Amino acid sequence: MGKVASTRRAFLTGALREAGSHYPPGVTDESVRHCSGCGECEKICPTNIITVRGGVPTIDFTVGECTFCGRCSERCPERVFPPEPAASFAHYATIADSCLAVNFVDCQACRDACPTTAIRFKPRLGGPFVPVLDTDPCTGCGACISVCPTQSITMTATTMEVAHA
Q1: pLDDT greater than 80 at residue 16
Q2: Distance between CA atoms of 52 and 80, rounded to whole angstroms?
Q3: Beta bridge partner(s), residue 52
Q4: What is the pTM of this model?
Q5: pLDDT tens, 129-141?
Q6: Cα 122 versus chain centre, distance
Q7: Are the CB atoms for 150 and 131 separated by under 8 Å?
Q8: b/e for 77-95, b at 16 or more Cβ within 10 A?
Q9: Residue 131: predicted pLDDT
Q10: Is the pLDDT at 18 greater than 70, yes or no?
Q11: For residues 50-76, b (16+ Cβ closer than 10 Å) or e, as one string?
């Protein structure tokens, strides 16, 4: 996949990001093999975050968020999506040190955009509140990514720890 600038600022500063690195909700590496690349999911997505690149549906959270409406799943003619619409992704948001609030600039855009209130701000002595992300309520919808003025929020894959015998 190519690199794109998500904003004018990113273009001018050379802060390029990998475009569409996540599948739509419920789609896995296994199920995406059934995709014909027809683009029906892309056409029906109400937030326009699904793009078919190289015959594979991907999500670009810099454009907006996933509302888990299930329209992409309903419209898909193949067995790419699970039978029941997904309610979350297999990833969660991560806030980097380049965050404005971490660097003593008041910003709470991510908290205001988060539909599950997974991002909260805790007080800090001598500066603005700092973001704290609770991974349990985070659905990975990406609402926080498109509103972040410094592109400090990324998604981290949820991994299951293997029990040691």
Answers
A1: no
A2: 13
A3: 57
A4: 0.78
A5: 999 999 999 999 9
A6: 23
A7: no
A8: eeebbeeeebebbbbbbeb
A9: 97
A10: no
A11: bbbeeebbbbbbbbbbbebeebbbebb
